[in-house]
Amino acid sequence: MICYVDIEHEEVLNDPARRDEHLAWAMDVQLRLEELSPAPCLVQHYSRVTLERLKAWGVRAVIISGNASDWERYPAGAFDALYEVIREADFPILGICGGHQLIAMAHGAPAGPIRLLSAGEESESGFGGARYFKEWGFLPVDVLHPDPLFEGLGEHPVFLEIHYWEVKQVPADFVLLASRPTCPVQAMKHREKPLYGVQFHPEAFILPHQRYRSPLVRIVYPEGYDQAQPDGQVLLRNFLRMAGVAPSL
């Protein structure tokens, strides 16, 4: 079983104006993961996730979502149980965007806004952060070290970026796998465990002739986006193969 951990703040789920859109996004990711794996995908809010429950559920891989809420909105200790999962679990874990930042923070590394806007710059709309520079759109990353996560993707795969926070430094015991000039820590891996973080959104891939789009793509490209961007699917399939929940090549 795969567990997709939703780390969005409870206020989003309790807001009638935002709840439906958020749940549609979570279901979209669930369906995409189940299309890549014969294993079922269990979606759980982070407040219900503990290491004991994951083991009892028979989870073999965990993917930690991104989030639109600023970290300061969460109460102190909100992520203690998830931090234990990140630090102690022996099954593969992939953190995406906010999940990537959580992995860094769980291992003592700082995260924060990329930078303030320069004079004359305008911020992209959406997800707050009006005063800050955002990475926004389908952008290439530079793969620095070969790793099974990037197998078949070449040196400059393209993924959806939609964030204004970043991991400020690679935690101790982690290796930097991919980078961009505007946000250097794009992907990282623990030196001894199958624990990965990626700042971009591989779940927002677009296949040729695919009629539907990830809700995240619609946020970034409200007027539509027609180009295929399949690299995220390849990365997710690579991760699920490493976890033993997707067919081998």
Brief descriptors of the model:
249 residues, alpha/beta, eight-stranded mixed sheet, two-stranded antiparallel sheet, 7 helices
Descriptive account of the structure:
A hairpin with a 2-residue loop joins strand 10 and strand 11. The strands form 3 sheets. Strands 2-1-3-4-12-11-10-7 form an 8-stranded mixed beta sheet, with helices on both faces. Strands 5-9 form a two-stranded antiparallel sheet. The chain has a single domain (about 1-240), classed as Rossmann fold (3-Layer(aba) Sandwich), CATH 3.40.50. The protein has about 250 residues and is of the alpha/beta class. The chain has 7 helices and 12 strands.
What would you say about this model in short?
The chain is α/β, with parallel strands linked by helices and 249 residues long.
Lay out the secondary structure.
Layout: E1 2-6, H1 10-13, H2 16-36, E2 41-45, H3 51-56, E3 61-64, H4 80-88, E4 93-96, H5 98-106, E5 111-113, E6 135-140, E7 142-143, E8 158-163, E9 165-167, E10 174-180, E11 183-190, E12 195-198, H6 215-220, H7 231-242
Parallel strand pairs: 1-2, 1-3, 3-4, 4-12
Antiparallel strand pairs: 5-9, 6-8, 7-10, 10-11, 11-12
